[in-house]
Specification:
By secondary structure, this protein is an alpha+beta fold. About 20% of the residues lie in helices and about 20% in strands. The longest helix is centred in the last third of the chain and has 16 residues. The protein starts with 19 loop residues before the first helix and ends in a 6-residue tail after the last helix.
């Protein structure tokens, strides 16, 4: 039988195990860290010197001190000291310092980038996939110069927002 759950690595109780409360309490501590995770910041320059119980951070690359060997993991201060939870691809964490979500990818943490195939508001699609280039208006007579200016402004806004290619 496995000793931990597959995805979040919660420790399992074993039949006939003495002091089952230790294993159960460790599973609760990990659940407290991993369910709707919130971190103070991503990859701070140093291990925080006086964290409050329940505060978490994402460990940076080549971490030193108490965080050495835990690159990319969630480091949470608990009443029992530092606890670490390994990150996995697809994990989503709120970063208080950034005011944004951080997503774990195969190569590291990606802060603030949201991925979607469309954006719907009230059930109505308001943004979809980027469309191909639309040429700026050209030609015509003097009478349509104001229309060309307006159309150019609309196209510039769509390009700025990434809705059409530049």
């Amino acid at each position: 039988m496995d000793e931990t759950s597959d995805r979040l690595k919660f420790p399992y109780l074993a039949a006939g195990q003495a002091q089952k409360e230790v294993t159960h309490n460790e599973a609760l501590a990990l659940a407290d860290i991993l369910i709707q995770p919130v971190v103070q910041s991503v990859a701070p320059a140093a291990v925080p010197s006086s964290p409050a119980p329940g505060q978490c951070w994402i460990v940076g690359v080549a971490a030193a001190g108490a965080w050495a060997g835990h690159d990319g993991a969630l480091a949470c201060w608990t009443s029992g000291g530092w606890r670490f939870a390994a990150a996995f691809e697809g994990m989503r964490v709120w970063s208080v310092a950034d005011g944004l979500f951080a997503h774990r990818t195969a190569t590291g943490w990606d802060i603030g980038a949201e991925r979607a195939s469309s954006l719907k508001v009230g059930g109505q699609q308001v943004v979809g996939a980027r469309q191909s280039v639309i040429a700026n208006p050209a030609g015509g007579s003097v009478a349509d110069s104001e229309a060309r200016v307006a159309i150019s402004a609309i196209l510039a806004a769509l390009r700025t927002h990434g809705l059409i290619a530049a």
